[in-house]
């Protein structure tokens, strides 16, 4: 084994890492936001009084959670031209990751809603609160407390999942690693650099979550 | 759709490959994860730190870059070729071991301190306490979420297609190409994964009801993550 680890060899390629990392971050942030919106809608659907609506919500969650993200991505990427829409790699990746993440997000939000006792809804209504006031002042703070920790995990999961965007030709960090590795044959170094980017992104969220959790909730039960 | 029935044996064979790959990775991951969990609950703090770093590192690095590293990096660094199968098993197992270690740790910690004290007080050695007192109780807590870990591995095994291993996803893509595009084969892929994964998660739910333990569920995002 005469391979020497020399980080210097990847220095010339670091210029390309910045836009790649930005792309990873952009996809992750947008996917988190979109999946939260879809997830909230699906979570509310699952609590509907209509059976059909509940079924659609449940089916969405189960399908997304039981199929690989890669397959979802390929379907979005290859199927969109078939129905006449031409999506760029970026849009297809973002859409695929968001749709998939929404399945997980819906379950997290649903668990938060379930944790709020019925009496809270009834009491708020009896107080003469409007639906908005009820959600804003009574329901949301309690839901937030329950979903806080799993939400952080989900954010990290989305960042890691964004690596699959490289499979549909989005030039983010994983793609950078593959390309630079293939060009320079310095796979170990490129791996270490890419890994550092992901670890920094994920652990920033992880540590911020712990810190903010400690500030928001007296009891530091925010961990896991 | 009538012509695509020709590909059924191919899909079935590929399904077998996917199950074999993910199952092997889970087994290796379970052994590795148990070792890490034992380190994690050790009385020596350096061991605990090593285990913590291992778990946190593998849970904050995407499996895809580990896969690329194992497949493309090993020939350059070690001087011998690694087959896509070995690279995929290795990467999946590493990731599974990090997830399993959290599950096993939760299991070990679910056994109350009183059990340890009582067993030690009755003259058992550490090893005996683990084997006869803690393990049987921990197993009840460990089994249901392990099903969740397996489902994650099963879905992650689709990534092996990217380095050219002919499992289910790769086969689906190939069938798609021979048919000249379209997304019928991709929907078939999704359906097969769904049947496998959903079926297993139903078994997991049954297992959970059988043992009737609260806390983490088999489909908990904590031990799985998206894949």
Keywords for this entry:
heterodimer, A: 224 residues, mainly alpha, 8 helices, globular, B: 227 residues, MetI-like fold, 0% strand
Provide the fold topology.
The complex is a heterodimer of chains A (224) and B (227).
Chain A: H1 14-45, H2 51-65, H3 69-82, H4 89-114, H5 118-126, H6 131-161, H7 173-184, H8 187-216
Chain B: H1 8-40, H2 45-59, H3 63-78, H4 84-110, H5 113-121, H6 126-156, H7 168-178, H8 184-211, H9 221-224
Helix pairs in contact in B: 1-2, 1-4, 1-6, 1-7, 2-4, 3-4, 4-6, 5-6, 6-8, 7-8
Structural account:
The complex is a heterodimer of chains A (224) and B (227). Chain A is mainly α and 224 residues long. Chain A contains 8 helices and no strands. Chain A has helices at residues 14-45, 51-65, 69-82, 89-114, 118-126, 131-161, 173-184, 187-216. In chain A, helix 1 packs antiparallel against helix 7 (173-184), helix 3 packs across helix 4 and helix 6 (131-161) packs antiparallel against helix 8. The model of chain A has no long low-confidence stretch (mean pLDDT 91). Chain B has a single domain (2-211), classed as MetI-like (MetI-like fold, Orthogonal Bundle), CATH 1.10.3720. Helix content of chain B is 77%, strand content 0%. The two termini of chain B are 29 Å apart. The model of chain B is unreliable at 216-222 (pLDDT under 50). At the A-B interface, helix 2, helix 3, helix 4, helix 6 and helix 7 of A face helix 2, helix 3, helix 6, helix 7 and helix 8 of B.
Short précis:
Chain A has 224 residues and is mostly helical. Helices cover 75% and strands 0% of the residues of chain A.
């Amino acid at each position: 084994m005469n391979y020497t680890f020399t980080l210097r060899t990847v220095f010339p390629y670091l210029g390309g890492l910045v836009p790649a990392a930005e792309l990873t971050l952009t996809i992750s942030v947008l996917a988190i936001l979109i999946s939260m919106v879809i997830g909230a809608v699906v979570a509310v659907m699952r609590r509907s009084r209509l059976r059909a609506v509940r079924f659609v919500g449940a089916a969405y969650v189960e399908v997304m959670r039981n199929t690989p993200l890669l397959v979802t991505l390929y379907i979005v990427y290859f199927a969109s031209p078939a129905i006449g829409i031409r999506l760029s790699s970026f849009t297809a990746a973002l859409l695929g990751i968001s749709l998939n993440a929404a399945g997980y997000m819906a379950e997290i939000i649903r668990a938060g809603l379930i944790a709020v006792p019925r009496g809270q809804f009834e009491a708020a209504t009896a107080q003469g609160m409007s639906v908005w006031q009820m959600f804003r002042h009574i329901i949301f703070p309690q839901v937030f407390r329950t979903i806080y920790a799993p939400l952080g995990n989900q954010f990290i999961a989305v960042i890691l999942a964004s690596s699959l965007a490289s499979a549909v030709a989005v030039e983010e960090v994983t793609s950078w690693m593959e390309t630079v590795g293939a060009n320079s044959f310095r796979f170990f170094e490129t791996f270490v650099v890419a890994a550092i980017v992901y670890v920094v992104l994920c652990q920033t969220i992880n540590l911020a979550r712990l810190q903010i959790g400690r500030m928001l909730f007296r009891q530091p039960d925010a961990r896991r | 759709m009538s012509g695509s029935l020709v590909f059924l044996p191919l899909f079935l064979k590929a399904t077998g490959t996917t199950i074999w790959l993910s199952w092997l990775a889970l087994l290796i991951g379970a052994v590795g994860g148990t070792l890490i969990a034992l380190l994690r609950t050790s009385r020596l703090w350096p061991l605990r730190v090593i285990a913590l770093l291992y778990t946190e590192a593998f849970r904050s690095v995407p499996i895809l870059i580990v896969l690329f590293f194992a497949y493309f990096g090993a020939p350059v660094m070690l001087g011998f070729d690694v087959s896509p199968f070995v690279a995929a098993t290795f990467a999946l197992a590493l990731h599974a071991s990090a997830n399993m270690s959290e599950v096993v740790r939760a299991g070990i910690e679910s056994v109350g301190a009183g059990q340890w004290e009582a067993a030690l007080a009755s003259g058992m050695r550490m090893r005996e306490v683990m084997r006869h007192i803690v393990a049987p109780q921990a197993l009840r807590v460990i089994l249901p979420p392990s099903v969740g870990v397996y489902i994650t591995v099963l879905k992650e095994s689709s990534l092996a297609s990217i380095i050219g291993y002919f499992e289910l996803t790769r086969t689906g893509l190939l069938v798609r190409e021979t048919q000249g595009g379209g997304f019928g084969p991709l929907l078939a892929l999704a359906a097969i994964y769904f049947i496998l994964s959903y079926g297993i998660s139903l078994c997991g739910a049954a297992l959970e009801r059988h043992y009737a333990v609260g806390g983490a569920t088999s489909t908990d995002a904590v031990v799985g993550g998206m894949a």
